[in-house]
Structure formats: C-alpha cells, structure tokens
Amino acid sequence: MPSEQIENYLKNIYKIQATDGKVTTTSLSDRLQISPASVTEMVKKLADDGSLTHTPYKGFELTESGKRQALKVVRKHRLWEMFLVEVLHFGWDEIDEEAEKLEHFMSAKMEDKVDEVLGHPRVDPHGDPIPASDGSMKKIRSVPLAEIEEGSTVRILRVSDNSPELLQYASSVGLTLNKKITIKQRMKFDDSLIVRIGTKELTISSRVAENVFAEII
C-alpha cells in the first residue's frame, strides 16, 4: 500500500495536472510547501516505480497506473469532505485539513459505508467531482466568472478550495453552489465584476472571479 507521503504526492500531482495541464517541480513544491530538492527526489522515485513520467525541464505527468492510485485518494478525500459537512456540520472552509488526515486511514469497507450514508454523492461540498469506486468521474463543464460576458445569468457549480479565506468570503456574500447570479458589469481598470445575487448587488475582485466557476443558464 502506498505510504501517506506518496498518496499526498499523487493526489496533488493529479490536482495540478487537472487544472494547469502541466506539473513542474516548482508548482508541486509550492502546493506541498516542501523544498524543490525533496520534490525532485520523490519524483524520481515515483518515475522509477512507474507512477509518473518525467521529462527534465518540461515537467511530469501521471501514468495510467499513477492516475488510478491518485483517484483512489481523491475519492476518499472528497467523500470525507462531504461527510464532514453533511453529517458533522463543518463549514466548507474547515474540511480540507481534516479530510487530509482521514483519507489515509479509510478502509474499503468504510469508504463504501460513507458513500452509502451520503447517498452516493457526485460532487464534494466545493463542487469538485467525486470519482466513482471504479475510477470514473463525472465531467463538470464550467467556466470562471472572470470569463463570462456581461449580462449573463449563471449558476455556480464550483468554488476553488485552494484558499480557506476565499471560501469564507464566498460563503459570506452568497457565492455558494447552485446559486444563480447575474454578471452586471465588468470594471475595465481592474477586471472586478459587479454581480447581482438575488436582490442585492456587490463587487467581487478579479481573483474571486477567477476562482468561482459557473454554467450559463
């Protein structure tokens, strides 16, 4: 069974690859808060055991075997996030660290039971898809608010979980899953957006707009 450290590497390589397309020593070092030298050493080990391919100066990517291993960890992590929110009533900004601890000690029996109790959810509390037990995963077609035209009405499908502070802010102003909002105006000088949520209007920064994802309705 992969060690906790290896599971964390595979999961985070998968997440970077899914969003950025390319994984580098620097991007992985920044995400894991580990020195580049340590990342380079682990990447070599993972390449040697067939979990990823590494092209010097061009980055690396998971092999099919590595992806399967990563998706198993991602599934456990996102199921625990749902359990923490739905059953234990944690806030969506509090769950990543807790799920990080629990995912490594989840048996297959426990995984199936949590999935059953939750009603076999397709997405986690942030809107990210939960892989099925066979590794398949629903594709969510969404775009950042930053790329949506003025006048569009959209439904929020996902909010990036990279920052607890962002999640706290999004929750406080109503930028939550399945909420319908209208893009009223884009401010040219800083790309901030004026949006309408229900009966209220507010201005959100370009950074927030880049991390909230929606579909046009």
Secondary structure topology:
Blueprint lengths: L3 H17 L4 H8 L3 H13 L3 E4 L3 E4 L1 H23 L8 H8 L5 H10 L25 E2 L8 E7 L4 H10 L6 E7 L6 E5 L2 E5 L1 H6 E5 L1
Antiparallel strand pairs: 1-2, 3-8, 4-5, 4-8, 5-6, 6-7
Average pLDDT level: 92
Strand line-up across the major sheet: 3-8-4-5-6-7
Proper CATH architecture of the domain at 143-216? Roll
- Beta-strand proportion: 15-25%
Backbone shape: globular
- Poorly predicted ranges: none
Largest sheet: 6 strands, antiparallel
Distance from first to last alpha carbon: 45 Å
Query: Order of helices and strands, N to C?
Result: HHHEEHHHEEHEEEHE
Would you mind describing this structure in some detail?
- It is a single chain.
- This protein is of the alpha+beta class and 217 residues long.
- Among the domains are: 4-62, Winged helix-like DNA-binding domain superfamily/Winged helix DNA-binding domain (Arc Repressor Mutant, subunit A, Orthogonal Bundle); 143-216, SH3 type barrels.
- It is 44% helix and 18% strand.
- It contains 8 helices and 8 strands, in the order αααββαααββαβββαβ.
- The strands form 2 sheets. Strands 3-8-4-5-6-7 form a 6-stranded antiparallel sheet. The chain has a two-stranded antiparallel sheet with strand order 1-2.
- Strand 5 and strand 6 (193-197) form a beta hairpin.
- Helix 1 packs across helix 4.
- The chain is globular and about 55 Å long.
- 31% of the residues are buried.
- The model has no long low-confidence stretch (mean pLDDT 92).
